[in-house]
Amino acid sequence: MPAEYGRIYWRYSMLDREGLAAVTDNVIFDEEMSRHTTFRIGGKADAFVNVKSALEIEKIIHFCKDTAVPYMIMGNGSNMLVSDKGIRGVVIHIGSSMSKCRIEGDEVYADAGILMSALAKKILDANLAGFEFASGIPGSLGGGIYMNAGAYGGELKDIIENVTFICPDGIIKTEEADRLDFGYRHSIFMDGEYIILSCKIKLKAGNYDEIKAKMAELNARRSSKQPLAQPSAGSTFKRPEGYFAGKLIQDSGLMGYSLGGAMVSDKHAGFVVNKGGATAGDVLDLIAYIQQTVFDKFNVMLEPEIRFIGER
Length: 312
Fold this sequence. Notes:
Elements: H1 17-23, E1 27-32, E2 44-50, H2 54-67, E3 71-74, E4 80-82, E5 87-93, E6 101-104, E7 107-111, H3 116-125, E8 128-129, H4 141-147, E9 150-151, E10 154-155, E11 160-166, E12 172-176, E13 195-202, E14 204-205, H5 208-225, H6 245-251, E15 258-259, E16 262-264, E17 272-274, H7 280-298, E18 307-309
Parallel strand pairs: 2-5, 3-5, 4-18
Antiparallel strand pairs: 1-2, 6-7, 7-13, 8-14, 9-10, 11-12, 11-13, 15-16, 16-17
């Protein structure tokens, strides 16, 4: 499966640690990825860089390509499962150091690293409506754009006007949303070596109290139906056409079923959770078991929504 957002290069040479440290001051070597994923699972990354600018990203990528070292881009780590063996190469983290937001009238200009929950609060304070559906999505804006995140009938593609990103050739480009191949849990960024930097969102003027009430309602619904108190990567499977993944899994008698430390949530069968001490192997084994069981019972093959990253 691909990276959370951004392409991985799988040619591999031994990481030149001194060389990378000369390129960026923000690198941590042998970093436990379990600290950076909402699943709380994952072995060590050779190098983890919390980048601060597009220029720094470009420098690191040039270094990686010149030295044949793999790299990947990640945001909040909310839709990924990292291998127990970790990640060989460089993890480029677009997070709080690239999370600026500017609001002008009904237009929002936001960096990829901002959390969607934090962006929702800023949008609320500006009395703008249309982002409520995303207020409880536990990810960064860049990761959300990458997979066209959505909830409760809304998707990011519905409100995004354009996206600024680094092209495979290193050129920074801004493209209108209708040219980004947005679809159900899909965008053009999944199909190429692009790195999302920021976007422009178009909303509508609204009433503060009404917007706040709608956000509270949706977040209460999320909290009542989803296992937010347990580590997970969100919905484990994409919605198959004509079905709901959670219902298929529940009707297969798998709610609460566990393998090792991984368990089908007993609150919402569409979520695989880490009930304590789960390994990536446990999660993958459970996903495979769910897929086979549902297929045997309903002749529907569930497609994972979460992405597996790292050394196999």
